[in-house]
Amino acid sequence: MTATATSTPPPAAPKVSGGSGRTRLSFPVVLLIVAGALLALSAVRAITGAQDVTSAGQISAALAMAVPIGLAGLGGLWAERAGVVNIGLEGMMILGTFFGAWAGWQTSPWLGVLAGVIGGMLGGLLHAVATVTFGVDHIISGIAINILALGFTTYFAKLWFNTGDAAAKGGSPKQSPPADDITSVTIPGLSGWLHSIEKHHWFFVSDVAGVIGGLITNVSLLTILAALLFVVTFFVMWKTSFGLRLRSCGENPVAAESLGVNVYRYKYIAVIISGGMAGLGGAFLSLVTSHIYNEGQTGGRGYIGLAAMIFGNWRPGGLAMGAGLFGFADALQLRNGGESVHALLLLLFVVLAVLAAWKLYCKSFVQGAVSAVIAAAVLVWYLATDTVPTEFVSATPYIVTLLVLSLSAQRLRMPKADGMRYRKGQGK
User: Fold this and answer.
1) pLDDT tens-digit profile of 348-377?
2) CA gap 124, 277 in Å, rounded
3) Could you write out the DSSP letters of every residue in 77-102?
4) Which residues neighbour 133 within 8 Å (Cβ) at sequence distance 6 or greater?
5) Percent of the chain with pLDDT over 90
6) Statement: residue 326 has pLDDT above 50
7) What is the per-residue pLDDT for 25?
8) CB count, 10 Å around CB of 7?
9) φ, ψ at 16 (rounded to 5°)
10) For residue 299, which of 270, 327, 340, 336 has the smallest C-alpha distance?
11) Angle at CA of residue 349, ends 344 and 354, nearest 5°
12) How far is residue 188's CA from residue 324's CA, in Å, rounded to a whole number?
């Protein structure tokens, strides 16, 4: 008589592709989408006469505003791909602005950048200890870090910036002395040639010239470093075994542990890197955008960065597009763009009208009707006014955030174990 031995099959490797069952956009398709968006902006400029919509100055300001948002979003991507929700990005950015300015005015701006990164990493380490080691709810820990960072920087700004040499050089209880500039680069010859084409206001051609000119004129070296970090993040996350293991912790940590992955270690690494990215975004604000630390200068960009990450479906390419969109909206308020925002109401009407038609075609009658009503209201607003109030312009980045997330919510797919409490050995 023979006995049939039964054996338990080994656990399947966790699926960490990050896909949602939809076809990913190829690079040519992305270029077509960008070209279509630029064509739409060109049409809006030609119809309304709002020349600043695609000017080199607007694009340059949008790029500067997109960098801290993108870096905060990149920090969120690192943490959430490992399964840790990082609401504390805003607080880590605050630490980056403070330590970046504190070291920057005393030494050199690049040492300030390093100090800002370290400050953000300390915030990330605190978040990792709370969520990974002690199992604190991720949202509660993140909010606590935001509050602690604000209180810490407010107290030490009064202590360090309002006395002695700092006060003599322009410091106060709410701001630091100014730091030196970080080198900016411009492509000689090409920038001037593009500016001359932009001044002709030719349809589409001048708009392309304005966009490219804004991207190659007075670009900070820190902006170039931020762009490289997006490329490095994509390569590490999706092209290396380290990235595969890290993403497995955010998809199925029990299965990852069964395959020999030290889940705690990877979560710690991801969250600390997340804090460093957010701290770098904060240092950018205090050393490139304004050259000083100012109380409250992050202005919610950590939260907007989190929204850009969600809009980008937890992938670097989509995150970069979202950061660019939010940076464009942020630049409008800085340039007092009442006329530009008013012109963009026409574009918003077209988008909502197309969305309403599509929803009605798909028999989503309630959503289609709501979109149609909002589109009609936007059109009436555009036709009845010549500009928009300053208060509305200031709120533009936050309104754009809400609109984009509401329109893109149906295609999103977060990591399966994102935000879930994990204890070592729980799969046994």
Assistant:
1) 999 889 989 998 998 888 888 998 999 999
2) 10
3) HHHHHTT---TTHHHHHHHHHHHHHH
4) 264
5) 67
6) yes
7) 63
8) 5
9) -130, 30
10) 327
11) 130
12) 25
As given in the structure block, the two tokens for residue 273 are 């890197």
**C-beta of residue 250 within 8 angstroms of C-beta of residue 81:** yes
pLDDT band at 253 (very low <50, low <70, confident <90, very high): very high
pLDDT at 428: 58
Question: Helices then strands (H, E): number in the chain?
Answer: 18, 2
- Residue keyed to tokens 């969109």: 325
Confidence of residue 39 (pLDDT cuts 50, 70, 90): very high
pLDDT in tens, 78-127: 999 999 999 999 999 999 999 999 999 999 999 999 999 999 999 999 99
Q: Which residue has the tokens 């309630």?
A: 366
Name the pTM for this structure: 0.90
Residue 239 host element (H or E): helix 221-239
Residue with the two structure tokens 């599509």: 358
At residue 71, does pLDDT exceed 80?
A: yes
Give the 3-state secondary structure of residue 172: strand
- Burial pattern 66-90, b for ≥16 Cβ within 10 A else e, equals bbbbbbbbbbbbbbbbbbbbbbbbb
Residue 148 CB-density burial (10 A; 0-12 exposed, 13-18 middle, 19+ buried): middle
What amino acid is encoded at 97 in this protein?
A: T
Closest CA to 350 of 319, 369, 332, 374: 374
Burial annotation 242-270 (CB, 10 A radius, 16+ → b, else e):
ebbbbbbbbbbbebbbbeebebbebbbbb
Please state the rounded mean pLDDT for residues 402-422: 82
- The CA distances from residue 402 to 250, 366, 388, in Å, are 26, 19, 19
